[in-house]
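If you are new to this repository, start here. Below is one unmodified record pulled from the training split, so you can see the exact layout before writing a loader.
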Amino acid sequence: MNVNAMGLLLRQLYDIESGTFTYLFADTESHAGVIVDPVYE
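And here is the target side for that same chain:
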């Protein structure tokens, strides 16, 4: 899933081993971003 609306990049990544999604949010202009990973190991 990629969304590029008003300079926002959203990528959804699926991990088969844990069965969870990780999300990448980034500003396409500044290239600043954050990863949201709900898995606690």
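Two things worth knowing about this chain: Strands lie at 2-5, 8-15, 20-27, 33-36. The mean pLDDT is 85.
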